[in-house]
Amino acid sequence: MKWVVAGWLLFIVSALFFIAAAWRAGDLLALAGAVLFLVACFSFLVPIAAGKPH
């Protein structure tokens, strides 16, 4: 289970870098996609945090 959480944390870090890159480039479409990617990553962590991974 800790590998699953570690993987999702890496995805979150990746999403944050995508957000930073889109922000610096001024690309609103990429920024929106990166933010949605971050929200999706958190949505997959909710069941794990609630103790219901499936």
**Low-confidence residue ranges:** none
Question: How many beta strands in the DSSP annotation?
Answer: 0
Radius of gyration of CA atoms, rounded to a whole number: 13 Å
Number of domains: 1
Portion in strands: under 5%
Tally of DSSP helical segments: 2
Transmembrane segments: 6-23, 28-50
Keywords: Membrane, Transmembrane, Transmembrane helix
Protein name: Cytochrome oxidase subunit III
What do you see in this structure?
This protein has 54 residues and is mainly α. The protein has one domain (2-49). It is 85% helix and 0% strand. The protein has two helices and no strands. The longest helix has 24 residues, at 2-25.
Compact summary:
This protein is mostly helical and 54 residues long. It has one domain.
Summarize the topology.
Blueprint (H helix, E strand, L loop, with lengths): L1 H24 L2 H22 L5
Helix pairs in contact: 1-2
